Amino acid sequence: DDGGGETAFPDSEWIDPTADRGSGWSECAEDHVAVKPKKGDGLLFWSITPEGVIDQQSMHAGCPVLGKSVKWTATKWIHARPFRHQFPPPPAAPPGCADTVAMCKSWANSGECKKNPGFMLESCALSCKSCDGMK
């Protein structure tokens, strides 16, 4: 076994920074929270908090395998919400609600509805959602 192949968490900290981490860490894992690969072991970690916020400390890297070592991995994703879910189409615009200029959607996405309301709310009513009954 030539080493390497650790999974390192560069934005994380050890729970007990004084604990003996042993030796034999690759340069990639040496100064980080890391796990050495061992045949038959699994590694499980959460990438989001219970509130659904990405946990920056879960960001990780697979360190290079050194020498003639081999590392096999298999990933199992568990999603908090449906993955690649087909969302229903947006509701139809109220009758008479339309954009009169082809660029309206792009302008609205760049904030022009608030920056230039005199033009936008009239000419781009659909994209600015300024028609009666629209949120």
Could you walk me through the main structural features you see in this protein, from its secondary elements to its overall organization?
The protein is mostly helical and 135 residues long. It folds into two domains: 1-81, no CATH class; 92-130. It has four helices and three strands. It has helices at residues 104-109, 112-115, 117-123, 125-128; strands spanning 7-9, 33-35, 61-62. A three-stranded antiparallel sheet has the order 2-1-3, with no helix packed on it. The longest helix is centred in the C-terminal third of the chain and has 7 residues, at 117-123. The radius of gyration is 26 Å and the shape is elongated. The mean pLDDT is 89. GO terms for molecular function: metal ion binding; procollagen-proline 4-dioxygenase activity. It comes from Micromonas pusilla (Picoplanktonic green alga). Its main location: membrane. Residues 1-26 are annotated as: Disordered.
Structural class: mainly alpha
Instruction: Write down the overall geometry.
Output: elongated
Q: Into which percentage range does the β-strand content fall?
A: 5-15%
Number of domains: 2
On the 0 to 100 scale, the average pLDDT is 89
What are the secondary-structure elements, in order, as H or E? EEEHHHH
The Cα radius of gyration reads 26 Å
Straight-line distance between termini = 62 Å
The percent of residues in helical segments reads 10-25%
Largest sheet: 3 strands, antiparallel
Low-confidence region ranges: none
Number of helices: 4
Q: How many strand segments? A: 3
Q: Largest sheet, order of strands side by side? A: 2-1-3
Keywords: Iron, Membrane, Metal-binding
GO molecular function: metal ion binding; procollagen-proline 4-dioxygenase activity
Organism: Micromonas pusilla (Picoplanktonic green alga)
InterPro entries: P4HA-like, Pro_4_hyd_alph_FE2OG_OXY, ShKT_dom
